Amino acid sequence: MSERTRRKSGQKIIADVLPDLKRKRESQNELIAALEHAVTILGEEPQPRPACRILVELVPISSFQTFRAHCDCCDSVLDGFNDNFRFCPMCGSRITDIRHEETAEEASNRLTEAAIKEHFANVGRSS
Ligand SMILES: [Zn+2]
């Protein structure tokens, strides 16, 4: 085999393999970047969940003693709340206190506050 033929043969082999090697290197670089990102995230301190307090309405919403409650963290209404919940199903905050309304007056105050809140929310929307 002449030197010229040997060089041509070597050039063809390298030219055929080079694009594949470049693709593999790009894919490895992407994998390395993803792994570095994962290492950074895994190294972060876990954030404690925010705490919330739950107010359970006085009157059940069905005859099966199903209660409606309110989360003070996200302001959500939680239908079907029960006292075994440890986290708010809407915002995921940790429940630190569950309080049940005890009097009709307390329930009435809550409804009044909600009506006032809604009124001012509507006033803000219309202006
Ligand atoms: Zn919540």
How would you characterize the overall build of this protein?
With 127 residues, this protein is of the alpha+beta class. The protein has two domains: 1-47; 51-126, no CATH class. The chain contains two helices and four strands, in the order H-E-E-E-E-H. It has helices at 3-42, 104-126, and strands at residues 51-56, 67-71, 77-81, 94-100. The chain has a four-stranded mixed beta sheet, with no helix packed on it. The termini are far apart. The model has no long low-confidence stretch (mean pLDDT 93). It binds zinc ion. Zinc ion is lined by residues 52, 71, 73-74, 76, 88, 90-91, 93. The site of zinc ion has 9 residues, from loops.
Layout of helices and strands, plus pairs?
Layout: H1 3-42, E1 51-56, E2 67-71, E3 77-81, E4 94-100, H2 104-126
Parallel strand pairs: 1-4
Antiparallel strand pairs: 1-2, 2-3
Question: Which value, in Å, is the CA radius of gyration?
Answer: 32 Å
CA-CA gap between termini: 89 Å
Could you say which overall geometry the principal axes of the C-alpha atoms support?
rod-shaped
Helical fraction equals: 40-55%
Bound molecules: zinc ion
> Which structural class do the helices and strands define?
alpha+beta
Q: Any low-confidence stretches, pLDDT <50, length ≥5?
A: none
- The number of helical runs is 2
Mean pLDDT: 93
